[in-house]
Amino acid sequence: xxxxxxxxxxxxxxxxxxxxxxxxxxxxxxxxxxxxxxxxxxxxxxxxxxxxxxxxxxxxxxxxxxxxxxxxxxxxxxxxxxxxxxxxxxxxxxxxxxxxxxxxxxxxxxxxxxxxxxxxxxxxxxxxxxxxxxxxxxxxxxxxxxxxxxxxxxxxxxxxxxxxxxxxxxxxxxxxxxxxxxxxxxxxxxxxxxxxxxxxxxxxxxxxxxxxxxxxxxxxxxxxxxxxxxxxxxxxxxxxxxxxxxxxxxxxxxxxxxxxxxxxxxxxxxxxxxxxxxxxxxxx
Length: 284
Hints:
Blueprint: E1 18-25, H1 31-41, E2 45-46, E3 58-61, E4 64-67, E5 79-84, H2 88-98, E6 108-112, E7 115-119, E8 125-129, E9 139-147, H3 152-161, E10 167-170, E11 173-177, E12 183-188, E13 199-204, H4 208-216, E14 220-225, E15 228-235, E16 242-252
Parallel strand pairs: 1-4, 5-8, 9-12, 13-16
Antiparallel strand pairs: 1-13, 2-3, 3-4, 5-9, 6-7, 7-8, 10-11, 11-12, 14-15, 15-16
């Protein structure tokens, strides 16, 4: 016997070929300052299992990460990283507490329209907001990049036709779906700064088709292993012109680290407020 069913827009749950933006990599010259900012200040969690030495930290932010390998000069992402944090009041307190340890650097923070914008010691900017109803309590929601004027439509075509992702271009910005509740946003601006080598890592469902398209255009920079390759140049498929540089670490869904469970602490828990079993944060 047939029963009445609710009509759903099934396309609303489609992700496109890019399943997840996993990490942003920005090199730093000082790991102690990186720990002060990312762990003590922002309240994120150092991965306890991988990159536990003195030359790199992997910083867990919900299901995403920031990687900070040691290099002589700090890298600066051209734009802003948007993150969801559980509580802005606690974030303000932590950032104020670490300020003396980061004096003389680019570190700073300010309130802005219901959010907190925090700047790391090397100038990377993080726009922090509390979670929306039903959304993740902690995670990277958007990497916003400053792109040259006139390039948004070509960048959208690149992600549509080369990466087989969902992408749109309007009002001077290309917006690309890179996972559930995650986007890359290329916003056209004047005097976009030069590229310094920072990178992002993404997982894709169809691993071979983008590889074939990138290989045809001669832009693959590294054949890392059977599960991963890299490219830097974002080009307009219509003309072949390079529009933007951003290294992509492209991983297959069979990569051993795909959907690896990450440890996240509740930064509000201190020795004074500790309750047994309450250290972990449920990220959603």
